[in-house]
TrEMBL record:
InterPro entries: DUF4230. This is DUF4230 domain-containing protein. It comes from the Bacteria. The chain crosses the membrane at residues 7-25, 37-57. It comes from Chryseobacterium suipulveris. Keywords: Membrane, Transmembrane, Transmembrane helix.
């Protein structure tokens, strides 16, 4: 509807300009008997034309709100039961510096670089499906036969870009940004492996199993098996 009104107004303005040009042409002719009337008509038409142009320029006809159509389709690929326990949580701020230099026409060096702050939350815990133990009902004790190392169960990352510098012939692409995020996440994972998260996770799990068995009047025969792998950590990409 707005486009229709604007077309009509511009048509009227164009016709008015054409008519004014015709009146000016008539005024320039030798016969000036009706020049006063023509001048008055021109003034009136000039006012009309000015009003139309001002109306169009001011944008007094408000644009209608844009029509947004959204749709989404969610497909559940697979579902299964798991028994994973988070026993430690760590927060990390990683400063990742990315710099890449190429040569335009194998001669002119071009450079792009970015400083990225990676803020991440890392959850460390255990997958009970990997546990193996032996239960002695008579003596009310449980012996751990296989106790795996703690795992990184989840990583939640947020990226903030600073000091982005790029040149016209060497711009950041989507693949570059994806690689930066992937490498930044790897740095966080390495930092988590070297942190105290594995020890914290192992100690929390030892306390959890001990207290859980005590509620059933059992005791853990070899809790040291939990601490044997506390310095190790597995990472399962998510």
């Amino acid at each position: 509807m707005l486009k229709k009104y604007r077309f009509i107004l511009w048509t009227v303005a164009g016709a008015t300009v054409f008519f004014l040009a015709y009146l000016i042409y008539q005024m320039l002719q030798p016969n000036t008997a009706s020049s006063g009337i023509l001048i008055l008509v021109m003034l009136l038409l000039g006012l009309v034309l000015g009003g139309v142009i001002a109306f169009l320029a001011s944008g007094s006809l408000k644009a209608q709100a844009p029509i947004i159509n959204e749709s989404s389709h969610t497909i559940a690929e697979s579902m299964r039961k798991v028994f994973k326990v988070v026993s430690a949580e760590g927060h990390f701020n990683e400063i990742y510096n990315y710099e890449e230099t190429n040569k335009l026409l194998n001669f002119i060096p071009t450079k792009k670089k970015a400083l990225v702050i990676v803020q991440a939350k890392v959850l460390v815990g255990y997958d009970f499906e990997k546990f193996k133990w032996e239960v002695d009902e008579q003596n009310r004790k449980v012996k751990l036969l296989n106790f795996p190392a703690p795992e990184i169960l989840s990583t939640e990352t947020d990226y903030k870009y600073y000091n982005i510098e790029e040149q016209f012939f060497n711009l950041f692409s989507k693949d570059d940004l994806a690689k930066i995020q992937q490498n930044g996440k790897k740095q966080v994972i390495e930092a988590a492996k070297k942190s105290h998260l594995p020890e914290v996770a192992a100690e929390q799990m030892r306390m959890l199993l001990t207290e859980l068995l005590q509620t059933k009047n059992f005791f853990l025969e070899n809790p040291s098996a939990i601490s044997e792998n506390k310095g190790m950590i597995d990472f399962k990409p998510n």
